[in-house]
Write a structure and sequence with these properties.
Elements (H helix, E strand, L loop, with lengths): L2 H4 L5 H15 L6 H8 L3 H8 L7 H11 L3 H4 L15
């Protein structure tokens, strides 16, 4: 399941997070969307609503995603092409 390809959302940040979820699944970091949700404290229903364009990832969710998976927040907001932060830096 590739979220970014099937997503109906037009929001840049939501698309970036779906891209990150796909990457995490491809690398075996998470098994599936449910696993991702559990690790960042989200309900799968929230992802479904974001996927359908009903709502968006909020700042708290983005922050948790960045902390749990070492994601580069600048990638989510379109300021960097690097999805993940270097492992030795924590900001």
């Amino acid at each position: 399941m590739h979220l970014k390809e099937k997503s109906k959302v037009e929001n840049r940040q939501d698309q970036a997070v779906f891209d990150i979820i796909d990457t995490l699944m491809e690398k075996g970091v998470v098994d599936n969307v449910q696993d991702f949700c559990e690790r960042v404290g989200m309900f799968k229903q929230s992802i479904t609503e974001i996927y359908k364009g009903i709502r968006h990832f909020n700042v708290k969710q983005i922050r948790e995603i960045c902390q749990v998976f070492n994601v580069n927040a600048n990638y989510i907001f379109g300021f960097s092409e690097n999805k993940f932060r270097p492992k030795n830096k924590r900001t």
